[in-house]
């Protein structure tokens, strides 16, 4: 029973107001809402009554919004959007209780997740395509994903982040090449070379393109094609410390003819974090423990 104070406004009244503001007439608003014009008229009067304000300037054969009405439209749009987002969050969270969705903004963590896949519960789904780095917070808060791996520590009031390990880049060179005779190397030492690179290399693409002077990069969409080219050509190619766990697109290394040389520039290493909602901490704890147990050391160990 209502006992005073602020009223809760019916969502359909807010929708009628917003549609009227966009169409400009009660008739067009009714048509778009698939109701009769008298229904909209009654709804607008009810809204004015509940708010205790005048939202419309009524003239013969014409009705327009007052300044208060225009403000009410803006607030109604916010409330409608918030209501839809709340429903979406609740529905996504409910789905997440049955299915746990894992994603990553980088290819390396996807390799590790797939390596663990056989030991993970059956209700876990791994997103094979990389997520956009700026979408993590939104996707977690909406309940679209239970856990997202990234090079970002996104700790906040609702999100927890835990450090998992380092992904470090290495270059694979034919031992006959001059640059292959060092235990480590830097991007600058790889200048003027041409490289084979998986198309889905993610954030590493910008790093190698910006860090290696006068280099050429041949991006391959299919791992199978990349593997075949590597078998029979002498193009250098990149791997990381997590590459040995790749059960899907592992690039073959020719026995005895290839040297894997760690790249020691600062931007050749990425700290990897797992991000999840604080309320999901207990659900993801075992998964995080598994990630920590299998994540490979970087090349400095």
From TrEMBL:
Coiled coil: none annotated. InterPro entries: LysR_HTH_N, WH-like_DNA-bd_sf, WH_DNA-bd_sf. PANTHER family: HTH-TYPE TRANSCRIPTIONAL REGULATOR CYNR, TRANSCRIPTIONAL DUAL REGULATOR HCAR-RELATED. This is Transcription regulator. Keywords: DNA-binding, Transcription, Transcription regulation. Residues 9-66 form the HTH lysR-type domain. Pfam families: HTH_1. One of its GO terms (cellular component) is protein-DNA complex. SUPFAM superfamilies: Winged helix' DNA-binding domain (SSF46785). GO terms for molecular function: DNA binding; DNA-binding transcription factor activity. Gene3D superfamilies: Winged helix-like DNA-binding domain superfamily/Winged helix DNA-binding domain. Belongs to the LysR transcriptional regulatory family.
């Amino acid at each position: 029973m209502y006992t005073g104070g602020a009223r809760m406004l019916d969502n359909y009244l807010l929708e009628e107001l917003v549609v009227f503001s966009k169409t400009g007439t009660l008739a067009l608003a009714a048509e778009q809402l698939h109701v009769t014009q008298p229904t909209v008229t009654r709804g607008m009067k009810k809204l004015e009554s509940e708010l205790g304000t005048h939202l419309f300037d009524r003239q013969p054969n014409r009705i327009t919004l007052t300044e208060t009405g225009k403000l009410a439209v803006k607030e109604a749009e916010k409330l409608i959007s918030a209501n839809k987002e709340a429903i979406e969050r609740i529905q996504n969270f409910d789905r997440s209780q049955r299915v746990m969705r894992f994603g990553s903004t980088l290819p390396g963590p996807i390799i590790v997740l797939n390596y663990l896949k056989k030991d993970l519960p059956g209700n876990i789904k791994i997103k094979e395509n990389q997520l956009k780095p700026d979408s993590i917070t939104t996707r977690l808060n909406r309940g679209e994903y239970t856990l997202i791996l990234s090079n970002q520590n996104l700790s906040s009031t609702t999100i927890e982040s835990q450090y998992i390990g380092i992904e470090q880049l290495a270059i694979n060179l034919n031992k006959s090449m001059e640059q292959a005779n060092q235990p480590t190397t830097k991007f600058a030492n790889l200048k003027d070379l041409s490289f084979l690179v998986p198309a889905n290399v993610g954030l590493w693409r910008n790093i190698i393109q910006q860090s290696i002077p006068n280099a050429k990069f041949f991006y391959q969409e299919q791992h199978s094609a990349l593997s075949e080219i590597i078998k029979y050509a002498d193009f250098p190619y990149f791997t990381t410390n997590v590459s040995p766990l790749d059960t899907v697109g592992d690039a073959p290394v020719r026995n005895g003819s290839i040297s894997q040389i760690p790249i020691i520039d600062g931007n050749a290493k990425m700290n990897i974090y797992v991000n999840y909602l604080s309320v999901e901490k207990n659900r993801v704890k075992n998964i995080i423990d598994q990630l920590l147990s299998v994540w490979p050391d970087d090349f400095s160990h």
